[in-house]
Amino acid sequence: MTVRMRHTRSHTGNRRSHHALKPKRFARCKQCSSPVLPHTSCANCGTYQGRQIVDVFKKLSKKERKQKEKELEAAEASHG
């Protein structure tokens, strides 16, 4: 490369100033209070904006299902 094509440190730094990663912002699920990405359904209880969207218990075994139901009941009781 020739000297006339060289980018100065400040120009390189100005360009790279927008490359920083921003931290993810989380919202709280209204149903179970677990952290959820905005505009997505809750992976823990399967609700979105207060409505049941995904059946989370469908793929679980009987033992896991009972345990999950207990956790959700406890979360709802402590939440409100």
Brief overview:
This protein is of the alpha+beta class and 80 residues long.
Keywords:
32% helix, two-stranded antiparallel sheet, 10% strand, alpha+beta, 80 residues, two-stranded antiparallel ribbon
How would you explain this protein's 3D organization?
The protein is of the alpha+beta class. It has one domain (23-79). It is 32% helix and 10% strand. It has two helices and four strands. The strands form two sheets. The chain has a two-stranded antiparallel ribbon with strand order 1-2. Strands 3-4 form a two-stranded antiparallel sheet. Strand 1 and strand 2 form a beta hairpin. It is rod-shaped and about 70 Å long. The termini are far apart. 6% of the residues are buried.
Draw up the topology in text.
Elements: H1 9-16, E1 27-28, E2 35-36, E3 47-48, E4 51-52, H2 62-79
Antiparallel strand pairs: 1-2, 3-4
Overall 3D geometry? rod-shaped
Low-pLDDT windows of residues: none
Q: How many separate domains make up the residues?
A: 1
How many DSSP H or I helices? 2
Which series of helices and strands comes N to C? HEEEEH
Helical proportion, percent range:
25-40%
The main β sheet shows up as: 2 strands, antiparallel
Q: Termini distance?
A: 66 Å
Q: Order of strands side by side in the largest beta sheet?
A: 1-2
How much of the sequence is in beta strands? 5-15%
